[in-house]
Amino acid sequence: MIRLSLIGIGTGNPDHVTLAAVRALNEADLILLPRKGEAKSDLVDLRRLLCRNLLDDPSRTRVVEFDLPQRDARADYLGAVDDWHESIARVWAGLMETYLPQGGRVGMLIWGDPSLYDSSLRIARRLRSCMKSSMKSPAEQAVEVDRKVELQVEIVPGITSLQVLTAEHRIPLNALAEPVQITTGRRLRERGWPGDTASVAVMLDSGGAFEALPPEGIYIWWGAYLGMDKQCLLDGWLADVAQTIIERRAALREQHGWIMDIYLLARKPL
């Protein structure tokens, strides 16, 4: 039996980690920390800090770091993501087989919350097919018994960048009695403003997707590194601040080697 906990840890502020997340961390036998390259070392540094500060008995819980496979940049985006998820699932399975051959509890620290533009749940669904029959007891190994590994997945919700963005700008997410749509920079570029939605939250933008929109009458609230000590906020009418945001984003990316940002667009007062 493998019990995998996908633990939302918020967006960079240790104060945003919930009591449920602390409990799940301390129940884990193994915690896996992904490394995403030297440029994004801040992300694994925060996870290390949380483990140091929140584990009651660090000697009981094994913390293992691993290099996250890189996604192929080919034109077939969905196909590349599908192959990437399969590669990550195989890495997860291999680590679990190595460090928990008899089963146990595994904790994965998920940036933000596993529900919002995060692939951890989809990757976890692939684990059963990736788990090898080598995860057997000594008695089973002695008689060459083959069995499937039982996997249970638990979700511990965390604070999202969207929540932090609205909190830091002191705004609601939606206009009064109106819906809000959450989308990606890629979709905003390809399809423009989604229907008659009054406000649009945009994530995973490689930079400046809002330039694809006619700026008149659109207000933007933008934030980068939300929850971290390097947090940066800007807001204003899109026609007035779009270029400022693009320039600030480029400067921050150059300074830190990476950037994670999000913004909310609205056509009606919030």
From TrEMBL:
Protein name: Precorrin 6A synthase
The species this protein was found in: Litchfieldella anticariensis (strain DSM 16096 / CECT 5854 / CIP 108499 / LMG 22089 / FP35) (Halomonas anticariensis)
Keywords assigned by UniProt, alphabetized: Cobalamin biosynthesis, Methyltransferase, S-adenosyl-L-methionine, Transferase
Taxonomic superkingdom: Bacteria
Single GO BP term: cobalamin biosynthetic process
One annotated GO molecular function: precorrin-6A synthase (deacetylating) activity
Domain Tetrapyrrole methylase: 4-204
Pathway per the UniProt entry: Cofactor biosynthesis; adenosylcobalamin biosynthesis
Pfam families per UniProt: TP_methylase (PF00590)
InterPro entries xref list: 4pyrrol_Mease (IPR000878), 4pyrrol_Methylase_sf (IPR035996), 4pyrrole_Mease_sub1 (IPR014777), 4pyrrole_Mease_sub2 (IPR014776), CobF (IPR012797)
